[in-house]
Amino acid sequence: MNSQDLLRVVQEFDSPVYVYDAQIMEGQYKRLTQAFKNVKNLKVNYAVKALSNVSVLKLLRSFGCGMDTVSIQEVRLALEAGVEPNDIIYTPNGVSMEEIERAAELGVQINIDNLSILEQFGTKHPSIPVCIRINPHVMAGGNTNISVGHIDSKFGISIHQMPHIKRIVENTKMRINGIHMHTGSDILDIDVFLYASEILFQAATNFNDLEFIDFGSGFKVPYKKGDIETNIEELGEKLSTRFNAFCESYGKDLTLAFEPGKFLVSDAGQFLVKVNVVKQTTSTVFAQVDSGFNHLIRPMLYGSQHEIENISNPVGRERFYSVVGYICETDTFANNRRIAEIREGDILAFHNAGAYCFTMSSNYNSRYRPAEVLWYKGLAHLIRKRETFEDIIRNQVEIDL
Ligand SMILES: *Cc1c(COP(=O)(O)O)cnc(C)c1O
Q1: Using CA positions, which residue lies closest to atom 15 of ligand 1?
Q2: What is the model's pLDDT at position 10?
Q3: Which domains does the chain possess?
Q4: I need a surface site. Which of 33, 256, 315, 386 has the fewest CB within 10 A?
Q5: What CA–CA distance (Å, rounded) separates 196 from 159?
């Protein structure tokens, strides 16, 4: 979709609004499956937490995606989207035994990431097959905010605890049908990822009933010019060869699973906002938009740099701006950014707004969460209404004072 299409979306549905391009998601899905075309059984489970609108889940399901979920509510969303329970993997961290049992009752693949629950679950439900999340202690990226493979990470069961895992499995007679890792959200170096994979292959030899090996995600997508991007094609070639050799030695065609979130949806999303005020201070020109970290928190939380484009004045002379929000808190989206001249009323598009943007939004300052629109086959479909005051007040209980 082009800038004119985006401007029409704002005309029709107002701002701020998230817009997702179905074609880009499909392209990413195809790129991934193409890269692993030499693997007999490939399973792509979309990480629901990246963007969890039911219509988006339906779309991804139509491509052939399963779903990777981290809460019982995400399991329910996936089921709502028509995904079969056996196409859903449930990979929670630190949730109660009760919630895991509820997910098991719904028939989804359970993935356990601590010894305590593994022992409890195996003792109570030895007949329900379980996947184990291993922490190989390999850091995929350099940013400690989003790396989960380090030694004191709360994620996964340490590879060094394999003897204990084996003891639990032997004692409970539970069946381990999958083994999993998710080392973080930034695969910068494919060789580091392959190194972690070797640890997972080694771990896999401890189990005789495996059906799949899940390599998680962490595929990096470029946010700004010059950003490193995971070379999926190279990873596909190298990991496929290694995976096929492993299956040969294991004596069975296993399924190779991934669970990408960002890779599938990030670039497909644009967040459109309107400029309320252009404010000149002694040193800075601020463009204040009708949004804030209540709608898009990644720049403040992770220091993410979303490209910002002035789509209503694309040929304007470029100047430097600080793009900030309207909430009563520091909410800087971008500092000293070169953007085509911004006038009050202009529409700015934040790029790469598909993953971890809407799903992390809140009602802070009692503002409404934005509408969401899916651009599908040349048409704009409203897939989430903008909130109203009713939504703000809904669960509040007014007592008589
Ligand atoms: C968040 C998450 C993912 C998706 O990570 P991306 O970086 O968005 O691809 C995959 N697996 C698990 C277990 C996760 O928690």
Answers
A1: 70
A2: 98
A3: 36-264 (3.20.20.10), 269-382 (2.40.37.10)
A4: 315
A5: 11
